């Protein structure tokens, strides 16, 4: 009886039924559940998958819906903001594919009254100035880079290499501020430890992935055929992996190459290999904290009007190698 009544009401109110459906589909303001977005530039990196997993944890804890979206370029980023707004979301966390999109992203977000928190990569204005007014959660970039340099030097000494026939391959991505600070931090630390500055060679990568770094490294290796041992520096695991793959291609064995990456979670497959490679280890920061904290800050801002801190720097990092990576990842619940 009740069902019959509902059905006939629906038939009579065809037009309004359609609009109810449209609202249900788009999740209009009538929808009670709070929605927040989490947009990342490179969803293929375990780093960002880990951030998403911990952002999901925050969503569960605070009972809101998290909309995860991949934004590999500017067009997809701006479209994603439209989609988020249409679905009734109130804000988003973002690791932008290009820092210079900062002003465009903020203009669009403001037009929909969406709150924005940046993670990992800081927004820049079109003129290249950091947009310090937009809240940011990121790793201590120079510090982790310095640690990378010191650990490389330490491992080189442990192996008793002849410094005269050793060089540093530093794969740079200077247009990304966090990358520039990490790589330059590593080079500074190596020099401080006593590595000859004249044997530190830099080469820019065209893309922040293994193929890009591999190409860059190959172009560098052919210029220095006399070098017998290489230390590999790069802004993250994929960059260093590309460098190490290039040394393998040129016939270097694991004993003559030391690469230490940054991110940790992106190095798990490599460290789990049955035979050691030139990729010695990785500095594991806290993608769990980045994902959870940025999302929690956004939730508190949107739902309780708690203004987020403008800058949250996450400092801790642990060196994981083939010997300890399982335990260290477990300790962090990764
Ligand atoms: C940048 C890099 C990522 C990761 C994050 C961490 O976005 O591209 O691989 O290292 O920083 O902050």
Automatic annotation (TrEMBL):
One of its GO terms (biological process) is L-arabinose transmembrane transport. Gene3D superfamilies: 3.40.50.2300. The record marks 95 as: The binding site for the sugar molecule has not yet been established, but C-87 may be involved. Pfam families: Peripla_BP_1 (PF00532). Belongs to the bacterial solute-binding protein 2 family. It is found in: Periplasm. One of its GO terms (cellular component) is outer membrane-bounded periplasmic space. Residues 34-327 form the Periplasmic binding protein/LacI sugar binding domain. The keyword Signal applies. One of its GO terms (molecular function) is carbohydrate binding. SUPFAM superfamilies: Periplasmic binding protein-like I. This is L-arabinose-binding periplasmic protein. Residues 1-24 form the signal peptide. Keywords: Periplasm, Signal, Sugar transport, Transport.
């Amino acid at each position: 009886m009740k069902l019959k009544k509902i059905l006939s009401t629906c038939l009579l109110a065809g037009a309004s039924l359609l609009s109810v459906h449209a609202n249900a589909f788009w999740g209009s303001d009538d929808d009670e559940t709070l929605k927040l977005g989490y947009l990342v530039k490179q969803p293929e990196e375990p780093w960002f998958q880990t951030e998403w997993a911990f952002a999901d944890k925050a969503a569960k804890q605070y009972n809101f819906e998290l909309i995860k979206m991949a934004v590999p370029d500017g067009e997809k980023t701006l479209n994603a903001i439209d989609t988020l707004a249409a679905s009734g979301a109130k804000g988003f966390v973002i690791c932008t594919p290009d820092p210079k999109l900062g002003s465009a992203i903020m203009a669009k977000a403001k037009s929909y009254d969406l709150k924005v928190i940046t993670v990992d990569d800081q927004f820049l204005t079109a003129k290249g100035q950091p947009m310090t007014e937009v809240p940011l959660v990121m790793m201590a970039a120079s510090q982790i880079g310095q640690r990378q340099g010191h650990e490389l030097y330490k491992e080189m000494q442990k192996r008793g290499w002849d410094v005269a026939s050793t060089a540093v391959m530093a794969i740079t991505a200077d247009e990304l501020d966090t990358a520039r600070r990490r790589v330059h931090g590593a080079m500074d630390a190596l020099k401080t430890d006593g590595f000859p500055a004249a044997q530190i060679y830099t080469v820019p990568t065209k893309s922040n992935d293994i193929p890009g770094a591999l190409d860059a490294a190959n172009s560098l290796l052919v210029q220095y055929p006399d070098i017998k041992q290489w230390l590999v520096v790069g802004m993250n695991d994929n960059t260093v992996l590309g460098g190490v793959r290039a040394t393998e291609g040129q016939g270097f064995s694991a004993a003559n190459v030391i690469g230490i990456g940054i991110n940790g979670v992106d190095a798990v497959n490599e460290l789990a290999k049955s035979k050691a490679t030139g990729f010695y280890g990785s500095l594991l920061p806290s993608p769990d904290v980045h994902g959870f904290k940025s999302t929690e800050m956004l939730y508190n801002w949107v739902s309780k009007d708690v203004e987020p801190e403008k800058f949250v720097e996450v400092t801790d990092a642990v060196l994981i190698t083939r010997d300890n990576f399982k335990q260290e990842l477990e300790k962090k619940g990764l």
